[in-house]
Amino acid sequence: MKGAACGFALVLLASCGEKNTASADSAKSAADRAKKFVAFMEAAQEEIKALKDDVDRGRGEGAIQPRLTAIRRNISAAQNTPFPKDGVDARELAAAFKSFLERTLQELDEATWDDNSGRVLWKKLLSGCAACHQRFRDG
Ligand code: HEC
Question: What are the average pLDDT values for consecutive 10-residue runs of the chain, which has 139 residues?
């Protein structure tokens, strides 16, 4: 009967003893982390879309700086969310985050975003996102 109850482990964890409960908990939190990770990425995506609009409309540094800050905040938050996907080397991913934040984004923070440079800089930012995705997404 105990075995049969464990067959319903997903709904009846409490009856299955410590070990099963612990592994189910960690699976759940891995799923939670994956969800959180994607939520931070999606928030960065919203900012980058809005940033394109700011650039196209020539809104200038006053509008652009807060976007870059929000992108940094969300990408840093993703960086700090341990990514539980199989086949992704955690150290390589960490290095890619570091390079994006400390090189790509840093350069773009320091650059002058004006009517001439804005589009080129925006594309550079997008390529920074894409470079990491090509290596790690679906990987
Ligand atoms: C250092 C690596 C890295 C960087 C930099 C990065 N991402 Fe991601 N991103 C990922 C990974 C890994 C996933 C896949 C998550 C998954 O498969 O569950 C992802 C997923 C996403 C998703 C989720 C939907 C999808 O298409 O899979 C969006 C949206 C996204 N990223 C936007 C961005 C934007 C915008 C930037 C740049 C501002 C960015 N990311 C920079 C690693 C990165």
Answer: 40 42 70 92 98 96 97 97 83 95 98 95 98 84
Q: Using CA atoms, how far apart are residues 60 and 58, in angstroms rounded to an integer?
A: 5
Q: Whose CA is nearest to atom 30 of ligand 1?
A: 41
Domains, the chain, with CATH or none: 33-136 (1.20.120)
Distances (CA, A) of 126 to 6, 130, 131: 48, 6, 9
The confidence score (pLDDT) of residue 82 equals 83
Number of H helices, E strands in the chain: 6, 0
Ligand 1 neighbours (beta carbon < 6 A): 34, 37-38, 41-42, 44-45, 48, 71, 75, 85, 96-97, 100, 129, 132-133, 136-137
Measured distance CA(61)–CA(109) in Å, rounded: 10
Three-class SS of residue 9? Answer: coil
Q: pTM of the predicted model, to two decimals? A: 0.84
